[in-house]
């Protein structure tokens, strides 16, 4: 059993670093390998082959469905709404499970601008749609849209077309939708409504501030229904079912009845949470525990953990693509190690308090490498937050909340008296999250550390705790020296070109200070400013945003820029856009930002028969010259060369997303750039940059980096060289790009 589990785990880790998905005939080789190694009783190899068989079959099936959907002319989809729709000011989003065609059973993310009918989970629709491939964008907080799509069996994004009618085929809301509507109405006036909905129905509709508070306080796991919550319901039910012994049943029947009823309650809770992936993982682990407890059998900690991991990976191997899987199984493994290495001693309250503090200290220290790897930093409040609110929520807040939710289903009038008390129980947690959100210093951002270094640090920390020897203390200290060295070697200046789709946002960062050039695009229900740019600023450690430069008046660069003032109240907006109030004109922008030189190249760009103001910037940063051209047209580029005959730039951002007439040969020859950047959407039907622009760059041997291929681009500038980091080039698994390139049709060139 141990060898089989190790084989599955080794196969899972190995699959993350394969350069490409093997062809279909490999399935037959894997089947033959399973048969051969089973005959030879090489259980490690059996586990390895079983994992690759399950993994390969899942990927091939998903890839075929994506290809059938995206590379054929699909104009409408018939499907059932399976998620609770999220409604915005002018649009709605939901998950649609396809009911007909080659993609039957798979899901599509649907965005519907101004739907004419109320939307509920359970409705069946025939929708005229425009399909788009799913793709990662600017965020580096561990979330990946492409990996998440594989895990949740989502094939594409779809926008409902307004030029054709949508037909409602079935209008029977799901029971979970009714429960959500009732809960939402009952808690509508409560400040903690978002927390209550997250802990009862798994609907985490948090604001940006609440998400930031969860990260700074390291309490995201507390508000995501997972093993802690499913186990809590199971444990409380087992405790409440102790009076079963009064029925006079034989002890083994009492034990089994308690297990069945408690498991049924935990399953009901998982259903309320929509059988989200973390709840399904927790429920499978609980079923395994119940199975062994049913037969009065015990497993050692390491055997149970390996069996659990192998079971999860064989049922759904693609779960390994999400950080949540590794955080969950890592936390369970660390809990088992703590229980084995530090058995309970003493029965008094002081001994229990010491054990509680020691447990959270052990878990916090050992989980730090995971948070650095997946989220790029650590929370200074992690230990204190978990010491305060995990016991509080487990013993008081969550049990009362779930009891009130059950009462809401049978006696809403009685439950109405209890909801204010439930809100009062969650008031300390809500206050704590608000305080954490407003203090950026609580989140200590770390640089991109190699995963091998993080692995060594994790193992050394674990050995230090387990062995408690002076030699291990020395080893743990030495293993942290490379991380300390990397921290000291971080360059002061960085240029970030964010992948925000059809638009642009450029960040110039000096340590914890920044200048943002454009705020990304806006769309129907929101903007890249809120969903991508603002989280990215927090993640890369920008605590003081000094200037926001809006180059010209267009939705592709303005986004929802006022939201930045809510989180950076001292930011100075620099623009000539007339609708921007309390803004500094471009001509009055300071010429110095720390030791960088700023020059405003103001021009008036032609748009149709009108003239609109545009703000172009030339920067000298650590000896590197950067040109951000704003909305320059070809005529503006020619005039720029006349006005500044000696102008040169080492790094140039293409104006107007690299359309045909932009970046002329004269323009490029005078600037003599060493690197050209381009910001545009991956899903554009017209190739960007235009083939003529690309040909000119190739003729002059100028490298081109674009957000459509590289994703978010970071350029670290030193006195003698620059280091370029592309998010997509360093992401795991390595084979993900090959799958996406096969699934997405080539753009139309002109």
From TrEMBL:
Q: Where in the cell is it found?
A: Cell membrane
Q: Which domain of life is it from?
A: Bacteria
Q: What is this protein called?
A: Competence protein ComEC
For the keyword RNA-binding, the answer is no
Q: Which residues cross the membrane?
A: 29-53, 222-242, 262-292, 304-319, 325-344, 356-383, 389-410, 417-437, 449-466, 471-487
Enumerate the InterPro entries for this protein: ComEC_N, Competence_ComEC/Rec2, Competence_DNA_uptake, DUF4131, RibonucZ/Hydroxyglut_hydro
Q: Where is the ComEC/Rec2-related protein domain?
A: 199-470
* Family annotation (Pfam families): Competence (PF03772), DUF4131 (PF13567)
SUPFAM superfamilies per UniProt: Metallo-hydrolase/oxidoreductase
User: How would you describe this protein's topology in the membrane?
Assistant: Multi-pass membrane protein
GO annotations of cellular component type: plasma membrane
Question: Which residues are in the DUF4131 domain?
Answer: 17-163
The record's annotation in PANTHER family points to: DNA INTERNALIZATION/COMPETENCE PROTEIN COMEC/REC2 (PTHR30619), RECOMBINATION PROTEIN 2 (PTHR30619:SF1)
Write the record's keywords in alphabetical order, separated by commas.
Cell membrane, Membrane, Transmembrane, Transmembrane helix
Record keyword Transmembrane helix present: yes
Please list the GO biological process terms of this entry. Answer: establishment of competence for transformation
């Amino acid at each position: 059993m141990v060898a089989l589990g190790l084989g599955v785990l080794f196969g899972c880790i190995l699959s993350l670093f394969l350069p490409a998905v093997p062809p279909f005939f490999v399935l037959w080789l894997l089947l033959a390998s399973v048969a051969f190694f089973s005959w030879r009783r090489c259980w490690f190899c059996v586990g390895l082959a079983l994992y690759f068989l399950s993994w390969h079959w899942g990927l091939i099936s998903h890839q075929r469905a994506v290809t059938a959907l995206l590379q054929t002319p699909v104009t409408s989809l018939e499907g059932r709404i399976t998620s609770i729709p999220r409604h915005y000011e002018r649009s709605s989003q939901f998950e649609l499970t396809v009911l007909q065609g080659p993609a039957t059973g798979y899901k599509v993310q649907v965005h519907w601008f101004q739907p004419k009918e109320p939307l509920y989970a359970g409705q069946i629709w025939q929708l005229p749609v425009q399909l788009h491939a799913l793709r990662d964008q600017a965020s580096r907080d561990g979330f990946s849209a492409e990996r998440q799509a594989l895990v949740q069996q989502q094939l594409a994004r779809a926008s409902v077309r307004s030029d054709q009618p949508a037909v409602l085929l079935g209008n029977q809301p799901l029971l979970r939708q009714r429960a959500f509507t009732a809960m939402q109405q009952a808690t509508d006036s409560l400040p903690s409504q978002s927390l209550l909905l997250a802990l009862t129905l798994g609907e985490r509709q948090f604001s940006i501030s609440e998400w930031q508070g969860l990260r700074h306080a390291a309490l995201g796991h507390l508000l995501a229904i997972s093993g802690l919550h499913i186990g809590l319901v199971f444990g409380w039910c087992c405790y409440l079912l102790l009076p079963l012994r009064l029925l006079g049943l034989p002890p083994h029947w009492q034990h089994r009845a308690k297990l069945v009823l408690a498991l049924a309650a935990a399953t009901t809770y998982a259903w309320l949470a929509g059988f989200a992936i973390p709840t399904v993982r927790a429920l499978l682990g609980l079923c395994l525990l119940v199975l062994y407890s049913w037969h009065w059998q015990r497993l050692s900690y390491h055997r149970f953990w390996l069996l659990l991991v192998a079971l999860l990976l064989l049922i759904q191997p693609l779960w390994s693509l999400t950080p949540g899987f590794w955080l969950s199984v890592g936390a369970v493994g660390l809990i088992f190690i703590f229980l084995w290495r530090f058995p309970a001693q003493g029965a008094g309250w002081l001994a229990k308090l010491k054990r509680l503090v020691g447990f959270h200290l052990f878990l916090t220290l050992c989980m730090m490498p995971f948070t650095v790897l997946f989220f790029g930093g650590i929370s200074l409040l992690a230990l204190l937050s978990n010491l305060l609110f995990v016991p509080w929520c487990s013993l008081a807040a969550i049990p009362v909340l779930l009891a009130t939710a059950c009462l809401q289903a049978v006696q809403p009038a009685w439950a109405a008296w209890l909801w204010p008390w439930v809100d009062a129980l969650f008031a300390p947690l809500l206050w704590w999250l608000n305080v954490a959100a407003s203090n950026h210093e609580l989140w200590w951002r770390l640089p991109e550390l190699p995963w091998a270094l993080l692995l060594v640090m994790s193992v050394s920390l674990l050995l230090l705790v387990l062995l408690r020897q002076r030699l291990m203390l020395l080893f743990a200290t030495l293993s942290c020296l490379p991380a300390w060295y990397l921290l000291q070697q971080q360059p002061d200046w960085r240029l970030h070109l964010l992948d925000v789709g059809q638009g642009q946002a450029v960040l110039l960062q000096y340590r914890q200070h920044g200048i943002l050039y454009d705020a990304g695009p806006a769309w129907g229900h929101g903007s890249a400013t809120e969903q991508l740019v603002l989280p990215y600023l927090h993640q890369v450690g920008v605590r003081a945003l000094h200037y926001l430069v809006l180059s010209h008046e267009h939705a592709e660069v303005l986004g929802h820029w006022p939201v930045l003032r809510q989180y950076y109240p001292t930011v100075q907006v620099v623009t000539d856009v007339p609708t921007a109030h309390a803004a500094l004109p471009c001509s009055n922008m300071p010429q110095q930002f720390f030791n960088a030189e700023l020059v405003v190249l103001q021009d008036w760009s032609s748009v149709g028969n009108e003239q609109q103001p545009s703000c172009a910037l030339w920067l000298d940063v650590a000896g590197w010259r950067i040109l951000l051209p704003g909305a320059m047209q070809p005529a503006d580029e020619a005039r720029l060369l006349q006005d500044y005959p000696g102008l040169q730039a080492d790094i140039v951002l293409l104006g107007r997303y690299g359309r045909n007439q932009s970046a002329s040969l004269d323009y490029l020859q005078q600037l003599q750039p060493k690197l050209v950047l381009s910001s545009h959407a991956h899903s554009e039907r017209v190739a960007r940059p235009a083939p003529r622009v690309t040909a000119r760059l190739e003729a002059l041997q100028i490298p081109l980096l674009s957000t459509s291929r590289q994703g978010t681009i970071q350029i670290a500038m030193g006195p003698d060289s620059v280091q370029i980091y592309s998010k997509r080039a360093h992401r795991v698994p390595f084979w993900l790009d090959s799958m996406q390139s096969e699934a997405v049709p080539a753009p139309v060139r002109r």
